[in-house]
């Protein structure tokens, strides 16, 4: 992206931005008071993703970290945590199988990493077997004590 021109006003700065290889010229308005941007391409309004034009303006004015109001929850690692609502405001209930799958995807690589390292020597292998045995018993105890069914969050 390249800044073609810039017009300063008291509170707003208007930028004309275009891709290096051509394309349409877009107008991006930067608000100095609340550090917000608005681009004529409307990608953020339509898709929830900041466009390259807006990112170029942030870079030009010295903002190197995207302001939190532009980071939609659905694009974060915590997207599935807590309540989630659809466009009509109806709560979306998470599929318990998806939650189990998510936890599995976190646990499996950690266990594989430990097993890989522990396999390097007999001593570390023995320690890993003892710890895994203890861990297995502890997990079973927690599951049997809880009122939670295996397919719940």
From TrEMBL:
It is found in: Nucleus. InterPro entries: FHY3/FAR1, Znf_PMZ, Znf_SWIM. Residues 24-62 form the SWIM-type domain. It comes from the Eukaryota. Its main location: nucleus. PROSITE patterns: ZF_SWIM. The keyword Metal-binding applies. Keywords: Metal-binding, Nucleus, Zinc, Zinc-finger. It holds the Pfam family SWIM. PANTHER family: PROTEIN FAR1-RELATED SEQUENCE (PTHR31669:SF251), PROTEIN FAR1-RELATED SEQUENCE 10-RELATED (PTHR31669). Putative transcription activator involved in regulating light control of development. Belongs to the FHY3/FAR1 family. This is Protein FAR1-RELATED SEQUENCE. The gene is LOC140007086.
């Amino acid at each position: 992206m390249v800044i073609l021109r810039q017009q300063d006003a008291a509170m707003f700065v208007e930028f004309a931005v275009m891709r290096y290889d051509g394309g349409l010229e877009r107008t991006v308005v930067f608000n100095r008071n609340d550090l917000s941007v608005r681009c004529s391409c409307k990608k953020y309004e339509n898709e929830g993703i900041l466009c390259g034009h807006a990112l170029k303006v942030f870079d030009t004015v010295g903002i190197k970290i995207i302001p939190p109001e532009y980071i939609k929850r659905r694009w974060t690692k915590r997207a599935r945590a807590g309540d989630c609502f659809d466009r009509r405001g109806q709560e979306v209930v998470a599929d318990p199988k998806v939650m189990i799958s998510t936890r599995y995807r976190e646990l499996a690589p950690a266990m594989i990493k430990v097993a890989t390292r522990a396999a390097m020597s007999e001593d570390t292998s023995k320690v890993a077997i003892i710890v895994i045995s203890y861990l297995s018993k502890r997990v079973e105890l927690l599951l049997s004590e809880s009122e939670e069914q295996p397919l719940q969050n």
